[in-house]
Amino acid sequence: MSLLTKISVPFKNVKTNLVHLQTVAKFSCVTNRLGLEHSSTVDNDAFDSYIVLGHDLEADLKKYKLEDKFKDLDLIKKNHKEFEKDLTFILTNNKRIIYSPTGPLNRDYDDVRQIAEASKKAMKKAIKIGSKKPLIINTVRDNFKLADQVALLAALEAAYNPLELREAKKAESLLKIEKLGYWNENQSEGQKTLDLVNAIELGRIVTRDIGGSDPERMSAQNVVSYINDVLESSNVKINVIEGQETFQKDYPCFAAVNRATQAVPRHSGRIVKLEYNESDQSEIDTTLLLVGKGITYDTGGADVKTGGYMHGMHRDKCGAAFVAGFFKTLSILKPKGLKVHGQICLTRNNIGEDAYVTDEIITSRSNKRIRVGNTDAEGRMAICDSLCEIKDLALTEKNPHIFTIATLTGHVVRSYGENYTGIMSNGPARNQEVDVKLQKSGEMIADPYEISRIRREDYEAHKGKSEYEDIMQCYSKPSAMTGRGHQGPAAFLIMASGLDNHGSDSEKPLSYTHVDIAGSSGKFPGIPTAAPLPSFVAEYILPR
């Protein structure tokens, strides 16, 4: 099966001047099916290599009655004391076999990511030795509920071909392999696993394509083109807002950030509204409302980033990329009972004579006067008006849960490290344990979270300091150098959007959770992880 369907599609529901849109052939993620194939037996000539995952080879193979199939591996183990620590590659009976150990899985600190790491490492080896059709055999699947899904997703992550390589024709398809096999003796269970993995991975490819591509290839207008391409003929409604006059009227804080792009038309911003609904109104039991930060390049603005800190700032759009990717997954899985609204806020934080500056006071959509403290805190400005609009929409929806998703602060990376998403909720969301549930789902699918708490000090820090302003955007120091530097911005978003009128003490409480992916979105240089897409699928789409 081909991993790529290459088509050219017209725009739909979009009016935009595509200045500087690359005219190369599109290699976007327009397919709805990757080359994933189930196999109920390991004796399958359709595959050219085996990837065996385990932590105690002899016991693991015996459990699944595979001893005879991989007896050569067992022989090597008896003569290699570091066998369960090192990746092993052998060629036997004209078949390539890669054994990738996970290490122990029963210690206090072990988790399903060890299976992901073993699978990813093995897939990289398979690609390096020229395998195009590997078969994954996971002998430790019983250790975690979603172990097979995690193993497959990790292998697919290692096989991803970046969009720009596909378009430059240095890569011919979405993946570095022709197909990926998955061994499971249960045909029905195996196919269900592949269907889920297929949808998640196609969403992650969209997320990586947008989040990882350079700031010109994924300028705001080019992101719009890409989204229309990948969601063409789907059940997702798309509406694009553009024009500085419209932004100044309806999204004034976004307009302030967008102002300096007006001198370079191809940098001008867009707000993309997405809606998914496959159910009658009476059938809807949950509504998600997602706002994604999409800064296509962050120079810092007038408070320019210096000393090399601008490096990698094209990745400041990974929150928006997640929202687009999640809608791709929704369009494939078509879950019932779930309604999803999304707003993707795309602009570039440029330097120029019309750039917004520190000390300006901007009146937000919620009619709050906001004093700018640092133009490099543009992300919260870019999304707070959309959050205000989403808040008003949530009041009309059934069981609404509002989220902002953003690469927002360096502080969250200093607090929790590079591999964890920071999550924090207002009172109504905390009462419903939104953050706790997402953390549990993330643990199952190798998409981990750490929970933070929005405290009174965070609100106090952002209250206006004089009669001129209602709210302080931030202070002059970067978040990483400020106490409570990732919790404070969440309080700002609540205050600037008017969500502070919908807390636990309100007659109309609204559940709101802020998701900071500054660390978990992935290292640069490198490939974006597409966090937190797997955990959102596990929490809101997987059947309980």
From TrEMBL:
InterPro entries: Leucine_aapep/pepB, Peptidase_M17_C. Keywords: Aminopeptidase, Hydrolase, Protease. Belongs to the peptidase M17 family. This is Cytosol aminopeptidase domain-containing protein. SUPFAM superfamilies: Zn-dependent exopeptidases. The lineage of its organism: Eukaryota, Metazoa, Spiralia, Gnathifera, Rotifera. Residues 374-381 form the Cytosol aminopeptidase domain. The keyword Protease applies. GO terms for biological process: proteolysis. One of its GO terms (cellular component) is cytoplasm. GO terms for molecular function: manganese ion binding; metalloaminopeptidase activity.
